[in-house]
Structures are given as C-alpha cells and as structure tokens.
C-alpha cells in the first residue's frame, strides 16, 4: 500500500498517511510556463495498491486536472490498483438537469476519473447520494456525521432541534436528529441567485430550544444565515451550524459574523483559513479516511465506520 497526494490538501494527506502507518510517497508536481501541469511519481509504484489523495476544492479546475494526471501517471507506472481519495468531490452541485441546456458536471467528473484509470473511489459526504450511481466502479462513501456527532454530544445540548435549511437536506437532518436524539424542523427557502437565498417559512417548533442547522457544504453561507434569521425570529434559544465541507468565501465569513449563529462546526476535508472573529470548530476526518484506506487495502468492510 502506498499513498500519494496532490497539492489540493497536502496537510490532510500527511495526517492520513501518518494515521494509516504509511509514508507519503514523493510526487513532483510543477507547472510549465503556460500553466500546464507536470506530474512525476518519484517512487516506484509497480504492482502497488495506490491511494491518491486530492480534495477538489477552492481551485477545482487546477486540482481536478492534477488528480486526473496523477491517476494517468500511476496507471502508466503499472500500479496494481488505483483508488482516488476525494475528501471533497468537486463539481457535485450540478448533479441533474434542473433547467434547459445545463450540464451534469458531477457525472462528467465521474466519467473523467474512470477514463483516467481510477479503479475505486473513496469520498466523504457527496452533495447528493445518487452521484455514487454515476460510477461503474466501486465507490466507498463515508460520512462526516460520526465525527461531528461525537463532538456535539460532548457539548451536552439539551432540548435540541436539528434543522434542515432546505428541503433537499431533510434526509441528512433526519439522520442527525436520530443520532442526537433530537427533534427535527425544516426551513423552506427560495434561491434568488448563486449567492442570495430567501428563507420564507419554518416547519417545526424551535421556540426556547437549542437548534442545529446541518448541511453538506457552505461557501457564501447564504442558506445558513437566512435560515438562522428565521430561527431567531421564531424564538430559538441558540443557533449552531454543522457542515461537512466549509468552502467559505469572504462574503460567507462576513455573513456569519452578522448572523445569530453562535458556532460553526465543520471538518478538514478542505483547507481551512485562519479564524479570529467567529467561533469555528474544525474536526479532523484523517483517522476515518486512514481507517477506510487500511480496510480497503485489506479487503475488509468499511461499514463499521458509519457508527458513532
């Protein structure tokens, strides 16, 4: 078993390799003067079970191309099996045609990964469960919820209500509510643009209760902050948010500062910036991914990793 990493999130890759008891193999990744990516796997990987860690976030075009080229390099170097480890699966938002003449980029990325030579995919909290069906190769889909729930239980939040900030996240909210033995509520929203959201109705009782907004990702925090304002208006005692992937922009940070959300709980599936003016708790998924990698290598079940 060998692990290599792109430049998408090398810190996490190093933590995964350390937790898995393996060395992170050297890879030379540079750019030609015109911006083309050059990759050379420094160590011999012939006949190895190779895991390539790359989080396709922040600069998704660059990191996706890096990943595809690394997979191709590994395939031509005669690696026995190539597993693409994507803590964050980029381009997952577009998973269906919801209007005329738009692409399904989640499927396009799946096709590219398979065409490049990936034999298996390991990922965390896909934007939509059905993306697994876009692949004709095995997909191990892990969840950040065991890590997040363990932390939330330590906070002893009594009389808790888990809130879905939109209808699409209701299934995730239901899973969290069962794990935390909490109530459940739903916020209805209307998206005006890619960055602006209007929350216009709430289903469920949150008055005088601790609330937890859950979502798979946030970037501009429009959905979270709009839902939080509605919860505040409904008399919620406290408002927290838990997201698997925090891709916050400057606009998102400013929105969180001015919102009634008192804490954002997230994971390190994507690189995190320094926080000074807003309470953010970043939990690590390195141990979970390392355990999954070891189990895949040893042909063992990974289903036990879903337990809290």
UniProtKB/TrEMBL annotation:
Listed cofactors: Mg(2+)
UniProt key word ATP-binding: yes
Protein name in the entry: Ribose-phosphate pyrophosphokinase
Cofactor note: Binds 2 Mg(2+) ions per subunit.
Positions with a binding annotation for ATP: 34-36, 93-94
Organism: Pontiella agarivorans
Subcellular localization: Cytoplasm
Active site (record annotation): 189
Catalyses which reaction(s): D-ribose 5-phosphate + ATP = 5-phospho-alpha-D-ribose 1-diphosphate + AMP + H(+)
Phylogenetic placement of the source organism: Bacteria, Pseudomonadati, Kiritimatiellota, Kiritimatiellia, Kiritimatiellales
Keyword vocabulary terms for this entry: ATP-binding, Cytoplasm, Kinase, Magnesium, Metal-binding, Nucleotide biosynthesis, Nucleotide-binding, Transferase
Entry similarity comment: Belongs to the ribose-phosphate pyrophosphokinase family. Class I subfamily.
Residues binding D-ribose 5-phosphate, per UniProt: 191, 215
